[in-house]
Amino acid sequence: xxxxxxxxxxxxxxxxxxxxxxxxxxxxxxxxxxxxxxxxxxxxxxxxxxxxxxxxxxxxxxxxxxxxxxxxxxxxxxxxxxxxxxxxxxxxxxxxxxxxxxxxxxxxxxxxxxxxxxxxxxxxxxxxxxxxxxxxxxxxxxxxxxxxxxxxxxxxxxxxxxxxxxxxxxxxxxxxxxxxxxxxxxxxxxxxxxxxxxxxxxxxxxxxxxxxxxxxxxxxxxxxxxxxxxxxxxxxxxxxxxxxxxxxxxxxxxxxxxxxxxxxxxxxxxxxxxx
Length: 275
Fold this sequence. Notes:
The protein is mainly α. The chain is built from ten helices and two strands, in the order H-H-H-H-H-H-H-E-E-H-H-H. Strand 1 (about 215) and strand 2 (about 220) form a beta hairpin. Helix 1 (about 10-25) packs antiparallel against helix 2 (about 35-50), helix 2 (about 35-50) packs parallel to helix 4 and helix 4 (about 75-90) packs across helix 6 (about 140-180).
């Protein structure tokens, strides 16, 4: 009696799945399943290689991954790598149920979406935009080019690394990392860096001052230079930025509503000589 043939995925298989996910994760993004169809597209060659000789298992695997799935596509790729490893183990006889595979996806897609959004939108994007905007403001045409190249290079490098690590470590390895508290430290550090960058961008690019003068018996006192700048340099730009953040985050206003409010404040302030 011949032994059952071991089904082994090559690095080419795993990398090929990574590129499919990178370019097509949101190609069929929809309200019913979000990124599930993109994930199935990325997994299709993997599933075919592992279950191609068993039509029922092949069909079951496709249906298994059509369940609701949504995460940040770069950092969330670590989940995809884990799932590939689990499918490979299952195809070789490991007792891994549908619930175990989908449980890993649904349990980790939220945390890793939060990590990815924090690092990309809250840290990396503001930092790289500040570099690109500074170059463009100085008259250089390389601003958009530098931003695009750096963003793509950093994002793809990290996305590829976490994808491969997810595959190498598997389910148990990622769970150990999550339990160690390392991820929480990374998020805290990234949030702090992002806040610092946003503060620097506010000071550099938000221009707001007041020409108001206070008339005294022995002369005039400039509110901007004699009072506000001595209290806190850039106080008005900071106040405007914090007000905008308050309206967006606390009051849950839409961006268009906030823009209208800012325009009204500017018009009224300009009309009465306040700004």
